[in-house]
Amino acid sequence: IESGAVRELDEETDLLVNTSDLVYLGQPKPQKYYFLTQKWSGNVKVDKPNPVTNKIEHDDWKWATINQIKDIDNSEIPIY
Questions:
Q1: Rounded CA gap, 68 and 41, in Å?
Q2: For the chain, what percentages of helix, strand and coil (3-state, to nearest 5) are there?
Q3: Cα distance between residue 66 and residue 35, in whole Å
Q4: pLDDT in 10s for each residue of the chain, 80 residues
Q5: Alpha carbon distance 67, 43 (integer Å)
């Protein structure tokens, strides 16, 4: 699962992280796994096309504090 998370992070954001730097946070729903890292390299780039569909899946991003995430209505992000 960790290697899949690393691959998805790279594909979706262009950020690189080692599996050894991931901290497993939990699985709040089937097929949803959450990890934390405080060590990565690269710069966020969300206009990368999906390697299978060749479509761009995201148009924006931002860093957010835990309190900002808590204020998002209907957020699926668990706060541990």
A1: 24
A2: 25, 20, 55
A3: 14
A4: 999 999 999 988 999 999 999 999 888 778 888 898 999 999 999 888 888 899 988 888 888 888 888 888 777 776 66
A5: 24
φ, ψ at 64 (rounded to 5°): -140, 145
Indicate the residue type of 32.
K
Q: Parallel, antiparallel, or unpaired: how do β-strands 23-29 and 32-36 relate? A: antiparallel
d(CA 9, CA 19): 11
Cα distances from 25 to residues 14, 18, 61, in angstroms, run 22, 16, 22
Q: Are 21 and 55 in contact (CB under 8 A)?
A: no
pTM of the model: 0.74
Contact between 25 and 35 under an 8 Å Cβ cutoff? The reply is yes
Please name the residue ranges forming H helices in the chain: 2-13, 66-70
